[in-house]
Structures are given as structure tokens and as C-alpha cells.
Design a protein that fits this description.
The complex is a heterodimer of chains A (292) and B (236). Chain A is built from eleven helices and 14 strands. With 292 residues, chain A is of the alpha/beta class. In chain A, a hairpin with a 2-residue loop joins strand 9 and strand 10. The mean pLDDT of chain A is 93. Chain B has 236 residues and is mainly α. Chain B has eight helices and no strands. The longest helix of chain B has 37 residues. The two termini of chain B are 36 Å apart. The chains are: A alpha/beta (292), B mainly alpha (236). At the A-B interface, strand 6 and helix 3 of A face helix 1, helix 4 and helix 5 of B.
Chain lengths: 292, 236
Amino acid sequence: MKVDVQNLVVRHGDVTAVDDLSFSLAENKVYGLLGRNGAGKSSLMSVLAAFRRPTSGTVLVDGEPVFENRRATSRICLVQHGVDPADKGDRLKDALSLAAALRENWDAEYAERLMELFGLPHGTKLGQLSLGQRSAFGVVVGLASRAPLTMFDESHIGMDTPTRYAFYDALLSDFMTSPRTVVLSTHLIEELASLLEEVVIIDSGRLVLHEETEAVRSRGTSVTGPIGAVDRFVEGLTVLNQKQLGPTKSAMVYGALDQAHHATARTEGLDLGPVPLQDLFVHLTEPAGEPR
Amino acid sequence: MKWPVARLLSSTLLPFTALVFAAGWVAVLLLVLGVSLVKDIGVSGWDMASAQVARWFMFGLGLHLARKLLQVAVVHGRTRREYVAQASAFTVALTAVAAACVALGYVLESLVYRAAGWRQGLEQPHFDSATDVPAVFLAHWGVFGVWTAVGMLVVSGFDRLQTGGVLTLLLGVALILPAVVTVGRSGSLPFFRDLDLTATASLPLALALCAGSWALGLLLTWGLLRDVPVKARAAV
């Protein structure tokens, strides 16, 4: 499902959560929506899923406006932390029946497999689940919806590490067999980085960057070698982070390296490698006047 | 599948409503049996319960319809327009079932009272016999429709306008007035006690007023819900 956002503004009272945002998402890709707390990610996703009306601007999915448009909303699923897919007093089996009744593409058999995968008890009430279990149930609802645009907003909150990995595996294997447009909002960037084909980074409601993940990664380089050689190499470059262990130092620099830098690295015996996406994200969303 | 929201509501809330009324009927009967040990029974327990308690239950169902279930429907890809239209249509069936339960309750109670030799005293302007099923049914259908619509309106008002929702409370009281002229003893409200306007309108007029009030309540509810946002609860 293709998504086009043009000049989108979302205000909550005096607060501007999304500020003149424009971007497009192609269909059948996995996107990471990254931003610091309060960057506007949840507001943006809420508008994409017609959970709220935008203050101004347009949101189109496959060329159709989203808000109060049944043709569009029936093909979108947003799993958002804090928004339950059923009443807290409903048992999970009833919550699944509810989803089956309301979702045209609901895959009940897949939902059962996911319930088993996450070890979710059918007879327990939604409100009695732990935070991690509730998040896992949200993932069940999101994946089994088979919605051509499926979004997960901080859906991993409260999940333990094995459950998170089970979520990522389930998402990936389902995506391979039934491609759809997936948008993942997360703060656990490195954990999810391998899943993301493209990243959209927003800050203060504005678009910072929208690129393929590999292109973002190529914006930075890690340099490892003897302390003196690394210090000489990074002189004049934007250093994101540096660590030292005995006589060895590792520094992460932002920006493309020219031929001369590559030649110097070879001469000095320095190792050049990729930079964690998370470190680049931190740099790109750094508040003005607060360099690392 | 056509009318998924109405089907869903029907499969869950109609049996629930019937069960609650059945449980209520048994509870009233037990209460009456208890009272009969200390004094003679001369009034219908069901008449009092169905006029005074049942309307609040319908009000609560209205709250549930307009708040919680709307949000769930939107989360599952349904539009507000679709939900409110089908939920509004569903209130016709819901209140009909509730009114049928009340009418059945009167008939069953009359059998018990007859067997026990008690007088089933009714204080109603539009029916004076528990076996006048059409009048009992129609009067309660109208009253329950109004109370359900007002429940939907009030919760929508508070959801949308926060403290300004208190205005919908006042509006709700005005909308309930037609119900007061339809079923006796249904005029007692917090701060508005004993709005006894019964016997001031014929049953057809009372029902017409109820229908108007019901429709106006649903229309105002739509006005409040047409672009209501789905909000996340506070982080846990």
C-alpha cells in the first residue's frame, strides 16, 4: 500500500506534534519510523490510521484520503501502545472474535498460531495481562489483520528479549510470504535495524531524513586502530562517539570519507567499518547547540 | 459481510441484556417474597424496578455503545460514520429486546401474584393491566430508546468536550422529558426529583415525543463523535 503525506500538520491544543511533514512510502517495504520522545511519531501514525483527523495537510493511501474513508481504513491496521483492540474486560478469545467480526482480511488460523507462539492464554481478560503480554497480543492483532498497511507503534514495550525476537522473526517470515507495507516505530533501533529497508527520521514534528537503511549507514564510518593514528585521522571530522581500550581506540565519524581518508586508513593500518544506525540517529536528532 | 458492527453488537449485547433483565426479575421476586413475610403485597415490584432501575441500565448501555465500542471499531478499521449509523440502528433492536423483557416480566409476575393472592398494583398512565402487553411493550420501548440515546449523548459530550460535557447532561434531562410522560415513576432524576408529568399525553403522543427525543439524541451524538480521536490511555 502506497502512502503519500503532504504538508501534514497535527496540533494538540497549543502543541504542534507534526509540523508541515511531507514524504511518501512505497508499497511492500518495511519502514522504521524513528524519532526521539515527543518527535511526533505517534501523532503521525494516528493520522495515517485515521485515529484522528489532521489539523491540515493530506494523507493518501493508494491515492485515497484516509479519514472516515472505509475503503482506506479497512486496509490499515495500527497497533499502538495504550490503545487496546478490545475492552479490558474482554477475554482474549472474545477479543479475537471481535477482530474477526470487524476485520475483513482477518486470518484466524494465523492468529491462533501467534497466540501459541507468544504463549497467550485465551481465557484471560485483556486487562489482566502483563504489559509485555498485552504488547504481544497487539502484535497478534496487527499481524493477523493482514492489513496492506500495518503499523506497530512501540509494540515491543514490556516484552522480554526472547518475545521481542519472536516478534521480529514472525514479522519477517510473514513479510516474506505475504508482503505488505509495514511501519515500525521503535527506540530499540539496533535490534530492529536488520529488518528495516528504509528509515524515516522525524524530529520536532519535521522530517529529518528518509532514506534506505544502507544509505543512512553509509553516512557514518567507524575507525579503529592505535590511539594516535585514530586521533590524527578524525581531526576535522564530525565525531559521533569514541571508545578506548588499552592502546586501541575506536571512533565513529559522520559524513562520507574521501579517497585521501581511505588512503590514510590503509597507510596507518586503521580498520574502517559501518556505524550503528542508533548512533547516527542520535546525531541526526541532536538538539541544536548540543553536539556530542 | 453486511452490517458487521450491528451483527457484532447483536450477538453480544442482546443476550447480555436479556440475561440482566432475567436476573433482575428474579432479584425483584426474591425481594417481594422477603417483604411479603412482614407485610401484605399490594404493588407490583416489577413495575417499580422496570420504571426506576431499568432505564439507568439502558443509559449505561448507551455509554458503552458510544465510548468503548466506538474506539474498538475504529481500531479495527471501521469508520465512525459506519459505527454510529449501525449502533444507532442497533438501539432499535436493543431497546425492543429490553422492552420485550419488561413486558414478559409483567406477565410472569402477574402469574406469581395471582398464585400468591396478591394485588399487582400498577401506577402507570398508559396501561393498567400487566397483561396489556402491546401498551407495556410500546411504552417501555420509547422510554428505553430515549435513555439509551441520552447515555450515548452524555458520554460523547464528556469524551469530546471534557468538562464542557456537563452541557450534555442538561440537554439529556430535556431529552428525557418525553420518557417521563410515557412511563410512570420514571421522572425521578438526581437534582430533578419527581418530574411527574404522566397522564399529560396520550400514548401515541408520548411515543411520538420519545421517538423525536431518541432521534435528536442520536443526531447530537453523531455531531460529537463524527471526528472524535482515538486516544491512548496513560502509559502504564
